[in-house]
Amino acid sequence: MADPKGFLNASREDWPRRPIEERVRDWDEVYVPGALLPIIRTQADRCMDCGIPFCHEACPLGNLIPDWNDLVSRDDWRAASDRLHATNNFPEFTGRLCPAPCEAGCVLAINQPAVTIKNVEVAIADRAWEEGFAPPRPPDRLSGRTVAVIGSGPAGLAAAQQLTRAGHTVAVYERDDRLGGLMRYGIPEFKMEKRHLERRLEQMRAEGTKFRTSTAVGRDIDAAGLRTRYDAVVLTVGATAWRELPVPGRELDGIHQAMEYLPLANRVREGDMEASPLSAAGKHVVIVGGGDTGADCLGTAIREGAASVTQLDIYTQPGTERDEDTEPWPTYPKIYRLSAAHEEARELRTAPSAEADARLFAASTLRFTGDANGHVRALHLVEVDAERRPIPGTGRRLPADLVLLALGFSGPDRSDGLVDQLGLRLDPRGTIARDADFATNVPGVYAAGDAARGQSLIVWAIAEGRAVAAAVDRQLTGSSQLPAPIGPYDRPMTV
């Protein structure tokens, strides 16, 4: 460690965000450009280089966090990039999109604000691109084996890159017209500008990975037939079957799933259309669901010029400090967090009915009502207790011209026919069943990411992609030097 007293002498300082009034008028990333590097060496110095770095265990990728913190503090960016990329294919993605369970597991977080691990990570990743520390790494020779990866989200891209670098000929099939999965059309530009994704895709093309867009396996191509053309098939199709809200009035116009709304806003940014047909402009918007997807809808609706935006969370409002009895260190605690979108909503007072920011906690939707034309005009809710039981006399009505359902996902979408054509076995949760080697019940077919694990974090998706690549490589060649950071049954640390 460069400064053994760094954690004593320096306080935590995060990457500052741009002024709210400025950033809500554009779709650029919310952080101040160039403001991270001046503070990042001091922040890296706060790493304690502790004897047992629990940040390793909190991160499924097993990132070598104390190593690259020390290298950044010494201004050795090339070595820091090498350490970072040794365990993570896409640190510029995780550094922007991951909620940082590593920071919850930071030893310093026992009694102080954690090291800004996520900020150090993104600083290394961005510096690596600027200085040319992340060149393409094509294989020295080809194995003669072929692999199809279905799905180009973080799990699919990680698996494809690892297998390509191992010498296999890899083709990635993506049903959308552009690559990236949810990173492309589900993540708003203000959280991660798509230039980061494009840059990494160009690296993968230079390494030899082939991409096939606008190709839905199961609909455009027979899945069973595709299996016969490749030595192995890796399914990384995500968990895109969204959860519904079966309440009276759900059939009214103006009620949409978040993943119907967000892709259209992203397509506007891609230049496919001038305005989204589901734009929130001038509308009273209610978002049902308190997670990250709901926050993405919130920030998007604010930028589109909504008249008001309210977000409903069925859970009670968490405290600002970790509950050591129920969520002790180093587990990831459920605490009150203020995302950039919530910060914007609070400052702009987008939800007059909410107390703190745009969120109404402990709120359950009862029904929707509409006008004579069958369009939603109001959402009726009731407050609930910790057991989600309605509290009498707490019913309320919110004006709603646009309702967005952000209730999560239950498993892979079966409408394209892929699951049935291959004859895949599903587990009771509706996700693709697999064994300890990531293999499905169909010989030569493997499953990774949210399609098999269930809805999870981007770091788990990348870890799954790296691990399934090692399993496939081992099956094709008899052994593998590829790292396998997790097993299919590993789960985050809990009590």
TrEMBL record:
Swiss-Prot/TrEMBL keywords: Amino-acid biosynthesis, Glutamate biosynthesis, Oxidoreductase
InterPro entries registered for this protein in UniProt: 4Fe4S_Fe-S-bd, DPD_II, FAD/NAD-bd_sf, FAD/NAD-binding_dom, Glut_synth_ssu1, Glutamate_Synthase, Helical_ferredxn
Metabolic or biological pathway: Amino-acid biosynthesis
Domain named 4Fe-4S ferredoxin-type: residues: 38-69
NCBIfam families xrefs: GOGAT_sm_gam
The protein's name in its UniProt record: Glutamate synthase subunit beta
UniProt source species: Streptomyces vastus
Lineage: Bacteria, Bacillati, Actinomycetota, Actinomycetes, Kitasatosporales
